[in-house]
Amino acid sequence: MEARTGPEAYLDGYEQILTDAAGTGRRPDRRQIDSRRASGEQAAEAGLSLRSCVAAHLSATRRHWPAGRTSAAGADHVLGAAEQAIDAFAEGYERAQRLAVRQEAADRREFVDDLLHGRSHLGRLAERAERIGLLLSYAYAVAVAEGAEPYDDFHPVTRQVDASLVGRFGSRNILITTKDGRIICIAPGDQTDVLTYFAKQAHSAINVGARIAVGRAKGGGGGVAHSYEEALSTLELAARMGFDEPVLKASDLLVFPVLARDRQALADLVHTTLGPLRQARGGALPLLETLNAYFDAGCVSAEAARTLSLSVRALTYRLRRIHTLTGCDAADPAQRYTLQTAVIGARLLDWPARS
């Protein structure tokens, strides 16, 4: 007898179920039902479609329709047995598919974690990346978006952003994923329009509390991980410094990591330059906020006064008080640099809250 292939290869035992139902009216027992479920799982693992398998079962039912048995009872026995058998087959098929989907999701999550943290062997990581459309021989940049709530791969906001990018750029060499409640876009570093479009779409979809940071393009085995860490550091810096811009580029903020690199020297500068402000009535914080507003306004007194809801006269008085206490004149270009650097350091170190 010629071996059957395709969907017909997973009909073993089904014909006997039909024969029993036609001859005695017996329904399939537990062993036969379990066998049908197992066949369904095997068909799914073999990559066959459920539609073709059901069609094969219906063809077999027609071939095994009892000759000369046309009574309603006989037909009901055969159809009832076929219904149970096909239902068990479909149940096994769907179970195998669910397991495959869960396994695929777990494999993807493991890959994303390894890619963002550079934990896997480069050769194996590159092979896994190529299967989802990334070529790690390129230099990649990573953009990270966060909002007021956490996001996962199935969140409507994530799916909306993903659909927007795929619709415009396709999925080749671009990956949208999530990590720690943030939405992440990984794209070739020379395709800045992709990251710009991602930032625009993410900001629009997240809306409330949206903040996006873009790391610099990095090559090499750990390029994606380095760019990702840089984007995270930029988000942290933005929160600490109180930046209001919704989209921040790490390349525009390189001075801050440089300042923070030698924390001891920065702390000495802050305490030496701004420490005397503690002697002011009300403590150092009001005068420090005055300096922040003054420097953020480009040293324009009228604009700084509006930001602080003060009169220009009151602002000028505060600046004179700062000069008296610190010995640094914010209006003097030579002294302004030291004072402004100390103010930036105070933000980075959360001074004076953390002394």
Automatic annotation (TrEMBL):
Residues 118-237 form the CdaR GGDEF-like domain. PANTHER family: CARBOHYDRATE DIACID REGULATOR, DNA-BINDING TRANSCRIPTIONAL ACTIVATOR ADER. Residues 287-343 form the PucR C-terminal helix-turn-helix domain. It comes from the Bacteria. Gene3D superfamilies: PucR C-terminal helix-turn-helix domain (1.10.10.2840). Belongs to the CdaR family. This is Helix-turn-helix domain-containing protein. Residues 26-39 have a biased composition (Basic and acidic residues). Residues 20-41 are annotated as: Disordered.
